[in-house]
Amino acid sequence: MRYSKIPNETVRRLPVYLRGLALMSRQGLSSVSSSKLADFVSVNPWQIRKDFSYFGDFGTRGVGYNIENLARQIKKILKLDTTRKTALVGVGNLGSAIMAYTGFGTYGFQITAAFDNDPAKIGRKMNDVAIESISMLDTLGKRQVDMAIIAVPEQAAQDVANALVRAGIKGILNFSPRRIVVPKKIKVITIDIATDLARLPYYIP
Amino acid sequence: MRYSKIPNETVRRLPVYLRGLALMSRQGLSSVSSSKLADFVSVNPWQIRKDFSYFGDFGTRGVGYNIENLARQIKKILKLDTTRKTALVGVGNLGSAIMAYTGFGTYGFQITAAFDNDPAKIGRKMNDVAIESISMLDTLGKRQVDMAIIAVPEQAAQDVANALVRAGIKGILNFSPRRIVVPKKIKVITIDIATDLARLPYYIP
DNA sequence: CTATGTGAATTTATTCACAGCA
DNA sequence: TGCTGTGAATAAATTCACATAG
Q1: Interface membership of A22 toward B (CB under 8 Å)
Q2: For residue B163, what pLDDT is reported?
Q3: Domain map of chain B by residue range?
Q4: B120 at the A interface (CB within 8 A)?
Q5: What pLDDT was estimated at residue A184?
Q6: How does DSSP classify residue B34?
Q7: How far: A86 CA to C17 C1' (Å)?
Q8: CB contact under 8 A, A84 and B201
Q9: Using a CB-CB distance cutoff of 8 angstroms, which residues of chain B are in contact with residue A195?
């Protein structure tokens, strides 16, 4: 089934596998079976094997998967094999939390630019990244940054998105609960905390 | 098709519709068609109608949906028709961002308790909610709080989850990138910023 | 004449069960 | 023998097309 169309759901699960593998690797393990990984990430073993089968032979029958190799393959599929420069727009509480978050390394992300419109913040450093004025967004294109995280108040989200598009950004992770409109060649993933929370009561008896 | 099993994906979309409706309502609109709502929330009109059809007749043929009524119905389905008391555990950057977030009101959530283990924070107030010591988590059961948001560092997540379970919490929104293990009658939704970000490069040409 | 509501068709995803290889 | 890899079977979700109600 190799190399034909990859289900969206599989793409959604790959980063989860990757995180599990990174954790196992840090624990000193070098090999893992689909059922061990399954326990770790709460997905069925056959689902995991099926997901991998879309790409090729990652494992060894009777043995399992080599963790390093598997992680490398998944990174390649997700195009995470080169370090990705990412810009953060909005350095409020949420933005600071994102900045402080160490989990990005696993996926090869590096936040190399941060923007805010608060004069008190501009010029300061966070994690070795200087906070710049929002008006500098246009310069991103020249700096090989092709992804951005929007963590600004709802009302400002669309303006920021427009500026990011002008700067040539190709993917946006949007944390504002506002639908943002961009040319359709630009991929947007929106995370709205409240809509996720809102599903919870439905499942509570 | 009324009242039979409701697709998970439909449940996932309902809060999105609800947010769109709230926004439209604030704009002074009182009625909406499936295609207008579709534009607003980026879902196809027939998908919207199908979703609603699992529950009953919400609309008027030839006219559309009454916004107030539709919102009320969706809230009822999602069990959001009573105010839900929610606890926040971890008042760092992420926790503060969550606390400051105004979007919860739409869904009837009210953060009525906040916990942290930093003595400097305990006793202080945020949004009229006093920050309590983590050791007070046990008291939640008596306070009619049945949902919690975990926004603590990765290593502390499981301990907090255990305490929440002991306190009788029934649903958890987990922001730490760590799988947490709880009895299966308790519903957990995990949001890991990095795994969402990690999907982005795949879709970038 | 308009926009809903829904069976039927189609597409997509999950699960199974087992052949094939180390 | 043990665990992968994958066709085939099943289940779930989406899309279509149109009858139906206001």
Answers
A1: no
A2: 98
A3: 8-76, 84-195
A4: no
A5: 86
A6: H
A7: 45
A8: yes
A9: 15-16, 19
| Cβ partners under 8 Å of residue A124, min gap 6 | A130, A131
Give the dihedral of Cα atoms A93, A41, A65, A49; nearest 10 deg: -120
Q: Which of residues 42-81 of B touch A (CB under 8 A)?
A: 42, 77-80
* pLDDT tens profile B53-88: 999 889 999 999 999 999 999 999 999 999 999 999
| SS3 label, residue B46 | helix
Nearest DNA or RNA nucleotide to B46 (CA to C1'): D15
Nearest residue to A48 via CA among A63, A69, A62, A32: A32
Which CATH code, of 2.30.30.90, 3.40.50.720, 3.30.870.10, 3.40.50.150, is assigned to A84-195? 3.40.50.720
Q: What kind of fold does domain A8-76 have according to CATH?
A: Arc Repressor Mutant, subunit A (1.10.10)
What integer pLDDT is reported at residue B161 of this predicted model? 98
List of protein residues whose beta carbon is under 7 A from strand C: A 7-10, 44, 46-47, 49-50, 60-63; B 1-2, 33-35, 45-46, 49-50, 52-53, 57-65
Neighbour order of strands in the sheet with A31-32: A31-32, A64-66, A59-60
Q: How confident is chain A (205 residues) per 10-residue block, as mean pLDDT? A: 80 96 94 96 96 93 96 96 96 94 91 97 96 96 94 95 97 91 91 92 91
Pick A196's closest partner by Cβ from B101, B179, B191.
B191
**Residue A59 to chain B, least CA–CA distance (Å):** 23
